[in-house]
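Here we describe the complex-level prediction in full. Unlike the single-chain runs in Section 2.1, the two entities below were treated as one system.
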Amino acid sequence: MNVLLVYAHPEPRSLNGSLRDFSINRLEEAGHVVQVSDLYTMNWKAVLDANDSTVHEAGARFDPAADSKHAFEHGLQSADIEREQDKLRWADTVILQFPLWWFSMPAILKGWVERVYAYGFGYGVGEHSDVRWGDRYGEGTLAGKRAMLVVTAGGWESHYGPRGINGPIDDLLFPIHHGVLYYPGFDVLPPFVLYRTGRMDSERFARTCAELGKRLDDLGKTQPIAFRPQNAGAYEIPALTLRPDVATDQVGFAVHVA
Amino acid sequence: MNVLLVYAHPEPRSLNGSLRDFSINRLEEAGHVVQVSDLYTMNWKAVLDANDSTVHEAGARFDPAADSKHAFEHGLQSADIEREQDKLRWADTVILQFPLWWFSMPAILKGWVERVYAYGFGYGVGEHSDVRWGDRYGEGTLAGKRAMLVVTAGGWESHYGPRGINGPIDDLLFPIHHGVLYYPGFDVLPPFVLYRTGRMDSERFARTCAELGKRLDDLGKTQPIAFRPQNAGAYEIPALTLRPDVATDQVGFAVHVA
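The structure predicted for the assembly as a whole is:
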């Protein structure tokens, strides 16, 4: 299959760089075709602004959503945005690999999401009415594709456990899993998370590669996280709250997983 | 008091721009001194990289933490980073104002956090031992100061409610409140969140300003979110999990609030 690896680390001679190279080799050896968006090497423009359209009039009021819609519909998007959208259309599976910085993705990757997920591509897709609230959360442009995060963290696994001080890793990643990946339609696989990256030696690196390799081998058959589709009956529309008979009396991120 | 407003929206003639101007006026009329870091207008460099130190050797391996530590300790930080750190030292209260993009802060603001929160300033502060795990989560460089988010969202309030499809707003903001603000020492005030920004008229804008104005008037006396300090006994060290007798059997972000 076609795999897009979106990679966000500033130093190729890093643990992240080594894991990226390992992943590319493993995937290619398995017969997959791999494209890499190495955001730092590409000098990716992280900041969404009026220049993301090729025809923005100097001095005109900039509306992030309306201008994105106009540019997307009229073929006026900046070329770097179009290239990334084409890669996403081409991919069967997308991997986002990044170090966890301040409990989220690095700014350069956040800016990739903001700019590439244009209105009409990443959001603002489909009918908005009394019975549907757009093609999102399980439907959308990227439906049928799979996505997985590969994340490194300096802290210990216990710090990210159910009662760990940083918050549970599944909750920290929920805005990305559910809000960035499931939203435009991806089936989201459980993440590969590596902790305590300051303590790495060759033995642990080999073990890590074995574990990551297994996940890469299983990309096509791993069960996705069972997020609930928005328009299939579990949610009231337009309030978009879970119906009272679904996960009754429960609250929080976890209720959105069946 | 001294108030730093860090503002991240690309268009001054926007709802966010109007709320920013309102806030500055309201604070100044109350006798406060206000500085604004208008990240788009400043053309803030969003991407953390080797150029954040003034002496990075071409071709040398870049280590984000080690290089940040070295630059911070030896006065070799990029001037834009130093200026923002000085503003943070100067401020009694810091307000971060931004539109919620993909369930988090815009990339330009994320990059402000990543670059300004240097090793030795935002993290890597204080003793790491068997009884203390650094000055963080309630202690640190910015202890004694207050912080508050002002956030706009296109979605409805119900979409961000306890059972709303986007996830509860308090949980979405937890990585910022707890992980970005409480971590280096801030007392974190409850956020001001404005929903359904596409439906704004002059009457609703006046009501919004009245509500925001009240929050600004009360900056000095609003009760902060009762996050638990890391080194005061609630957590096991070094596992950094809540002690079994604290919030017994509970899990998730909410256990970190007393």
